[in-house]
């Protein structure tokens, strides 16, 4: 399906995509939670795969190789080309380990996502212990990480939409390097509150096991509801906003520069 530009950046349409990604993320977490924690997949040097893992963890190795294949399939000759030909995130698969449009000296969002995932999330959704399903667990990890990265980097589209609705104000704030002001202007608390309530209901409903007598009474949940709500409240929403803020800073400066060139040309 082809959309016009204004449809692509319609805030309502973009928010619908974020809502749909809630399902993707919850189901990816449920998929992961069927395997035990298998901690050794997260430790550097703990597991070797045909001697190719090097000094990375099994998950890092597996993720990197998967992302390499994805970049190739998309016909980018190198990660750099991938990063710098597209000023907006790829709507289908944002790069996870590759350099992003965001300047390299800024917060690396994907490192942050990996950190949160390995150190907080996976412990709170998986049964502790080792069931030796390393390949399966890591495959599910990659699906979770990619879904989270896609959701969070979607902030670039959201930010573009917001910029278009108020270019003057965002540019003024960007020129003043006023990240707090940008944060306040882009934040919509009502949307966030509704999201968290909806997420709680979804995690409860999607996580039920329906083969028991007490089906529907939420006593046998596949993942803890609080872990999902917590994930969004503490990490997903704030990181999406980091992406939005960084995008709007760059966007405002670019818009200003463009306007200056135009006014020079008119002289
Ligand atoms: C993504 C948006 O921007 C902000 C971040 C939100 C989120 O990450 O879910 C929700 C509302 C806004 O405060 C949006 O406005 O939809």
Automatic annotation (TrEMBL):
Output one GO BP term. Answer: L-phenylalanine biosynthetic process
Give, as in the UniProt entry, the pathway in which the protein acts: Metabolic intermediate biosynthesis; prephenate biosynthesis; prephenate from chorismate: step 1/1
GO CC terms, sorted: cytoplasm
Catalytic activity of the protein: chorismate = prephenate
Enzyme type, top EC level: isomerase
InterPro entries given in the database record: Chorismate_II_sf, Chorismate_mutase_AroQ_euk, CM_AroQ_sf_eucaryotic, CM_II_prokaryot
Q: Does the keyword Cell membrane apply?
A: no
The entry's protein name is Chorismate mutase
- Native source organism of the sequence: Umbelopsis ramanniana AG
């Amino acid at each position: 399906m082809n959309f016009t530009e204004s449809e692509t950046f319609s805030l309502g349409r973009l928010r619908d995509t974020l809502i749909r990604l809630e399902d993707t993320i919850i189901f990816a977490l449920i998929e992961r939670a069927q395997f035990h924690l298998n901690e050794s997949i997260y430790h550097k040097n703990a597991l070797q795969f045909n001697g190719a893992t090097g000094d990375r963890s099994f998950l890092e190795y597996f993720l990197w190789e998967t992302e390499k294949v994805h970049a190739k399939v998309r016909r980018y000759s190198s990660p750099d080309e991938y990063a710098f030909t597209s000023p907006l995130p790829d709507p289908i698969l944002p790069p996870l380990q590759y350099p992003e449009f965001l300047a390299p000296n800024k917060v690396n969002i994907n490192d942050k996502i990996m950190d949160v995932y390995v150190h907080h999330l996976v412990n709170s959704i998986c049964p502790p212990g080792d069931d030796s399903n390393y390949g399966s667990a890591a495959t599910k990890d990659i699906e979770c990480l990619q879904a989270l990265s896609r959701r969070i980097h979607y902030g670039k589209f959201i930010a573009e939409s917001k910029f278009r609705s108020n270019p003057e104000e965002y540019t003024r704030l960007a020129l003043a390097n006023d990240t707090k002001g940008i944060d306040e202007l882009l934040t919509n608390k009502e949307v966030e509150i509704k999201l968290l309530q909806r997420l709680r209901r979804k995690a409860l409903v999607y996580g039920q096991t329906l083969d028991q007598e007490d089906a529907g009474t939420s006593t046998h949940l596949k993942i803890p509801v609080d872990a999902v709500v917590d994930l969004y409240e503490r990490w997903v929403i704030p990181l999406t906003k980091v992406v939005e803020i960084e995008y709007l800073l760059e966007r405002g400066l670019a818009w200003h520069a463009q306007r200056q060139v135009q006014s020079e040309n008119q002289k």
